Amino acid sequence: GDSVITVQLTEEDKVEDDVVFYLIFTGSTVQHCTSTRKVNPGSLETISPGHDCCETVKVALCASREGHPVLVVAEETFQFVQDEAYDAAQFLATCAGNQQALNFTRFLDRSRPPAADVDFLDEKVALAFRHLKLPAEWNVLGADQSLAENIPRETLMHFAVRLGLLRLTWFLLQQPGGRGALRIHNNEGATPVSLALERGYQKLHQLLTEEEVREPDSWSTLSHTVHSGDYSVKHHRGLDVYMLTAEA
């Protein structure tokens, strides 16, 4: 999800300004409808939706004009795939509270990947997390939230802070258990806040200690949910397009 899709119109499809184009993605269980932005008379832009499974879906380019029936201009197929970032997000989501799995992730810290790789990892894994269908009862601290705060243990928040993953940390803070995780000490006696301070991650430390903190600037290029219920409506600020997702 959240990749830019460009649609090239043929000469006969280049029409008046009062015609509105949109794309409909029809999957096995859900359907997405996205508005488009006209770049020039011959091309449109929109944002790919985050889909609920890996599959090939049918995409229809539709044209709408007031007082006229909706016209299907063209049809094509579009394939949703599961990449390494999605696998990583799924793994991290399932190991919330699993001490053996969380201790295993600490080997990444010893390898200390270059800053550019960390930034890429942060962006992709956080984006994948945003598109995961997390269970309603999911919690950053795992299934057993009854554990007292004074029981030392690793948390997903420790993992994100240790690697300096700003976007993932911000995402986790918005989830159930996110704020509570800031008070948990691990076996070395470190909280996520003290880890950020110890490693010199100033932006991260600010994120964890300020009550009213804005989301990372780079996320202005992502879609934001403006309504959710039986269906979801997202708005992409950068292109100013909307996406409606509903059961097919």
From TrEMBL:
<dbReference type="InterPro" id="IPR051632">
    <property type="entry name" value="Rho_GEF"/>
</dbReference>
<dbReference type="GO" id="GO:0035023">
    <property type="term" value="P:regulation of Rho protein signal transduction"/>
</dbReference>
<protein>
    <submittedName>
        <fullName>AKP13 protein</fullName>
    </submittedName>
</protein>
<dbReference type="GO" id="GO:0005078">
    <property type="term" value="F:MAP-kinase scaffold activity"/>
</dbReference>
<dbReference type="GO" id="GO:0071875">
    <property type="term" value="P:adrenergic receptor signaling pathway"/>
</dbReference>
<dbReference type="InterPro" id="IPR036770">
    <property type="entry name" value="Ankyrin_rpt-contain_sf"/>
</dbReference>
<dbReference type="GO" id="GO:0015629">
    <property type="term" value="C:actin cytoskeleton"/>
</dbReference>
<dbReference type="GO" id="GO:0016020">
    <property type="term" value="C:membrane"/>
</dbReference>
<dbReference type="GO" id="GO:0043123">
    <property type="term" value="P:positive regulation of canonical NF-kappaB signal transduction"/>
</dbReference>
